Prior knowledge:
Blueprint: E1 2-6, H1 12-21, E2 29-30, E3 33-37, H2 40-49, E4 57-64, H3 68-76, E5 89-97, H4 104-123, E6 134-142, E7 145-151, H5 173-182, E8 191-193, H6 200-210, H7 232-242, E9 252-256, H8 259-272, E10 278-282, E11 296-299, H9 314-325, E12 331-336, H10 341-344, E13 349-355, E14 358-365
Parallel strand pairs: 5-6, 8-9, 8-11, 9-10, 11-12
Antiparallel strand pairs: 1-3, 1-4, 2-3, 4-7, 6-7, 12-14, 13-14
Helix pairs in contact: 1-5, 2-7, 3-4, 5-6, 6-8
Amino acid sequence: MKLYIPAAYGIEAAVKREIERLGFGHAPAVRGRVELEGDWETVARLNVFLRAGERVLLGVGEFPATTFDELFEGARALPWEEYLSRDSKILIDGKSVKSTLAAVKAAGGVVKKAILGRLKEKLGATAFPETGPRAVVGVSIFEDIVTLTLDTSGDGLHKRGYRVLTYDAPLRETTAAAIIEDSFYNREKPFADLFCGSGTLAVEAALYARNIAPGMERKFDFAAWKCTPHGALERARQEARDGVYTGPVAPIFAGDISPRAIQIAEEHARRAGVKNDIAFSVRDMREFASELGYGVLISNPPYGERMEKGADLFPLYRDFAKVYRSLPAWSAYLISGYEVERAFGRAQKKRILYNANIRCGLYCYFGQKPPKNP
């Protein structure tokens, strides 16, 4: 089967590395998604283990179409009966970019009609109650090429299940995981987030350190489909449980000036099962100090819509830069809509990411490398 892993802008490289680490080999990134070949075991493992990918889509077929008749015939020619049942609850998720068929809602209606026509022919069905398992059909039309998919994940993979309380401008879990994946962080290095908000970065760092798969205990749509081999998901979950690391982990610090933020972050860490791995504190970031070396500082400091209109951010970032310079041999990764380099100096590496639809920079500052063990 052909599988697609959508990734947020700037995150594709992290997803590719994850896929390679899971043993799936080469996986090219095309138009904001990573592609690979696999089977149902692959589907299960990707859903359970991926930290930075947004979903796992199963490719049903691809064909050109510039008219609704071509769209209908192309969709009807695909083997929907291999995946869907008479009672499948079929939902449509569509998008069209640079294509003749720009009416997304109408295109989705045509595709659904074609699917039901195919199922009626192949399954001998006369009625479709849609009372069974959910099956979200993706209709993607790009430059007049139609790609039809089935969403095996259901709810997006960023929904780990631990973030149940709200706080200002939270960083998406998959974005946080991708930044950690791209950083120098590992369980042997101290970690700090001095603007932790609802705790996403610290929690994702702890999950990464413990090798806790983010989808280990959550539900996925594909598990309820009749076409899914029995035990595929449970085998992936057991692999994940067997891989959890229970040894020592370097300190993880999470601070915020808001008591409410720390209260929320602690609850999220508790729900994620990593509360004991994170030292939370209510404090101004200017108070942070550490004698530990070779740590990793990753933060999403205030900027743009999170500040009062016209607020001068430079003093905050100037003081933040002073704190960073006081840390012996630490590296820093800052995602911000503010011009971080005004205060921190030129970053060794920088790229564009989006947080809550706000265009941001990820500014990377590299500390000294730890000495190699003899």
